[in-house]
Amino acid sequence: MKVTVDFEECLKDSPRFRAALEEVEGDVTELELKLDKLVKLCIAMIDTGKAFCTANKQFMNGIRDLAQYSFKDALVENSLTKFSDTLQEMINYHNILFDQIQRSIKTQLQTFVKEDIRKFKDAKKQFEKVSEEKENALVKNAQVQRNKQHEVEEATNILTATRKCFRHIALDYVLQINVLQSKRRAEILKSMLSFMYAHLAFFHQGYDLFSELEPYMKDLGAQLDQLAVDAAKEKRDMEQKHSTIQQKAALQDYSSDDTKLEYNVDAANGIVMEGYLFKRASNAFKTWNRRWFSIQNNQLVYQKKFKDNPTVVVEDLRLCTVKHCEDIERRFCFEVVSPTKSCMLQADSEKLRQAWIKAVQTSIATAYREKGDESEKQEKKSSPSTGSLESGSESKEKLLKGESALQRVQCIPGNAACCDCGLADPRWASINLGITLCIECSGIHRSLGVHFSKVRSLTLDSWEPELLKLMCELGNDVINRIYEAKLEKVGIKKPQSGSQRQEKEAYIRAKYVERKFVEKQAASVPLLESGTKVLPPSQEEKRHSGPEKSLLAGEQGAASQKVRSSDSGIQPSAEDSREHLASTVSANSLYEPEGDKQESSVFCDSKQPSPGLQLYRAAFEKNLPHMAEALAHGAEVNWVNVEENKATPLIQAVRGGSLVTCEFLLQNGANVNIRDMKGRGPLHHATVLGHTGQVCLFLKRGANQHATDEDGKDPLSIAVEAANADIVTLLRLARMNEEMRESEGLYGQPGDELYQDIFRDFSQMATNNPEKLNRFQQSDSQKS
After folding, report:
1. Three-state secondary-structure class, residue 724
2. Which of 110, 289, 480, 557 gives 20 to 30 Å between its CA and that of 563?
3. Which residues belong to any copy of the PH domain (predicted)?
């Protein structure tokens, strides 16, 4: 309530004046109490806010520590770092807010109380003092007697001076009261307005800060949705793996240890086998201690704790032997003997003992083999005639350097974007089509069925070398030139990465299932679709000119055929051509009598061959784009050429000598066990021609090695006659593995681990270093 004191009333010093003064003084006293209380509350609020900022800063530092801890996960690290930076900004804004509050409320109101109200109080004291003096002067003046003229004059003078002083001080007091009443409104509202503006600035700054962060938060939310989907999938996969391992564990018969030991010569960490064993000490007490043993870097080592440096038992496995020990009281013991010392070890069961003995023996053999490979590499480096092998060794070096399937496949033209929608950095692939896909398009491809598209992850799944090379032979550009040849003609717009899923699904079905955009071929000769051919007169003459002429024509056709590229990416040299011709002669000699065979008829002049014949020809020519085009035009992958002993495209791929071509046909549904008129399937032909990599591939794909041709020979007997040690080894290992699985009832299981390791080595060698498997052809060429 605003109180105004009249100056006129001040001069009169009336009761109204005194009542007004009393009311003003009471109001100022209450105002001082309210302002003191508000200042104290403001101080408490500022102290609490600073404590909040301190706690918030500690929390933000905790987030930063968590971000630094998560440096292996880029998404978590980047997100937490960005959030902690935002919180730090908010803490800075809070500190600015509290500083402004302190200036607007605490400082301004305290100044008003200490200066203006203090002035009012000082003025009040002077007024009360002079008012009392005036009252005393009035009383004294009233009590003076008339006859005492001297006292009358003195009292009158004192009263006059006192009134004059009273009026002056009273007017100053009233002025101070009116100024205070006017100023307090401005001071209070000014401080509160400054306080509110500080909050306005604080919330504006926070809004602007989080507005900039909002797009990132939305993107992160979308990624979290995808992470939830991926986590659910990973959970299902882990549950399935858990169930599978439980089933495997039920088949294992370890007496005291359920741990499954695995021998992996290609282990990334160099440890090919590890597990617990008891070791007998060499001291006088011969105590037995349980230690963690491992075979790594051609050494046998052990350690007590994980952080301990491994203790080497055997420096070089090539210098040691391993044997059973039945002459001591403990069971399941075996001894590793080196030239300088021996080590007595004990496993937990008989199976574990056998596994360790087998692992040590295999490691000894591997150590010798690696030593031999190093010597061979040194010889090749010193020999000037190894220039044609650079491409193969280059590929091997890339694998050794850990180049991922994603990096290799995305280097192919067009593969850096999804084949169907163009989204960058695709992480999925269709292995039978040879294209890369984004995650959404891969889901649509998966729904088409494996007979149209076989989807595999480029980052999560393991890739066999021949399959990886198949992906590198095709690519999005090649396949789109085939499957989108008529896209512009039909007026269909290709979906983009942001298109609806329904639009993408309709397009993909039209592209791969209905093949609406494939350029149709002109009508071909109907008889060719059934595998028969009408030969030109020149071809008919060759056909009836006898076995010698037919064989010669086949050899000339094969020798003159221009090969697009070999499996290792090397252009064939003159030496390679001679080796190929020698292997062809050797193969035909094993095939005899086969005089009516016409390789040259494969390349008969036809204006428009049928899709099946096109596939058949391209398989021999190692031309994967032409094969893909033939399949797109409706070629039957198991098409039979009745004119050439009912040979299939897969058999022609064997004759052409390309491992990748065979893999392409198998991925597209080729039957590995279809045989020609002479009873020979792809495995027979690969064995006769000495194609070790193809033999390995067909055995992995379930080829029947017990099938016999019209001469009663199975692939093993053919390989034995040809003295091809590599193929004999593969066939015998496959047969032993098959017998072992049948005896143990492990139908449908991959079988012995050593068998898998050897086949993996042959697959790697056939894909990346095929020259190492040419020993059979080279030896035959040298003999001839």
Report:
1. coil
2. 480
3. 270-365
Q: How far apart are CA 730 and CA 122, in angstroms?
A: 114
**Do residues 721 and 778 share a domain?**
yes
Q: DSSP characters for 567-614? A: TTS----HHHHHHHHHHHHHHHHHH-S-TT--SGGGG---SS--HHHH
Q: Which tokens sit at 490?
A: 């039909």
CATH code for the domain in which residue 467 is found? 1.10.220.150
Say how far apart CA 464 and CA 455 lie, in whole Å. 15
Same domain, 306 and 334: yes
Give the chain's domain count: 4
Is a pLDDT exceeding 60 seen at residue 664? yes
Shared domain for 426 and 501, answered yes or no, is yes
Cα-based angle 525, 527, 528 (whole degrees, multiple of 5): 70
For residue 677, the domain's CATH number is: 1.25.40.20
Partners of 494 in beta bridges: none
In a domain, 265, yes or no: no
- How far apart (Å, rounded) are the C-alpha atoms in residues 765 and 778? 17
Which residue, chain included where needed, has tokens 């496993």? 347
Nearest to 471 by CA among 508, 429, 422, 418: 429
Tell me the CATH number at 364: 2.30.29.30
**For residues 531 and 641, what is the distance between their CA atoms, to the nearest angstrom?**
4
CA 228/CA 276 separation, integer angstroms: 38
Q: Which of 679, 777, 652 is nearest to 726 (CA)?
A: 777
Q: Measured between alpha carbons, how far is 784 from 782 in angstroms, rounded to an integer?
A: 5
Q: How many C-beta neighbours within 10 Å does residue 597 have?
A: 20
DSSP at 318: G
- The residue type found at 1 is M
Confirm whether pTM is higher than 0.90: no
What the block records as the tokens of 212 is: 């900039």
Residues 663 and 711 in one domain: yes
592-647 pLDDT, tens per residue?
333 333 443 444 444 567 888 888 989 899 889 999 999 998 899 999 988 888 89
| Beta-ladder partners of 295 | 273, 300
Last residue of a domain, one of 237, 263, 282: 237
Sheet containing strand 271-280, strands side by side: 311-314, 299-303, 288-296, 271-280, 342-346, 333-337, 321-325
CA atoms of 626 and 700, how far apart (whole Å): 26
Mean pLDDT of 215-229: 92
Domain-embedded: residue 387: no
- Nearest CA among 706, 709, 661 for reference residue 685: 709
- The Cα–Cα gap between 320 and 339 comes to 7
Q: What is the pLDDT of residues 519-578, one digit of tens each?
A: 887 654 443 333 433 333 333 333 333 333 333 233 333 333 333 333 433 333 333 433
**Residue numbers of the domain that contains 705:** 526-783
The verdict on residue 393 lying in a domain is: no
Are 740 and 677 within one domain?
A: yes
Helix, strand, coil % over all residues of the chain, rounded to 5: 65, 5, 30
Q: Are residues 501 and 533 in the same domain?
A: no
Residues 436 and 567 in one domain: no
Q: What string of H, E and C letters represents the secondary structure of 404-449?
A: CHHHHHHCCCCCCECCCCCCECCCEEECCCCEEECHHHHHHHHHHC
Question: Is 248 inside a domain boundary?
Answer: no
Type of residue numbered 326: E
| 34 plus 119 within the same structural domain | yes
Element (H, E) at 312: strand 311-314
Cα separation of 251 and 268, whole Å?
Answer: 28
- Residue 360's nearest CA partner among 311, 332, 323, 331 is 323
Query: Of the candidates 463, 484, 513, which is a domain's last residue?
Result: 513
Which residue carries 């809004």 as its tokens? 207
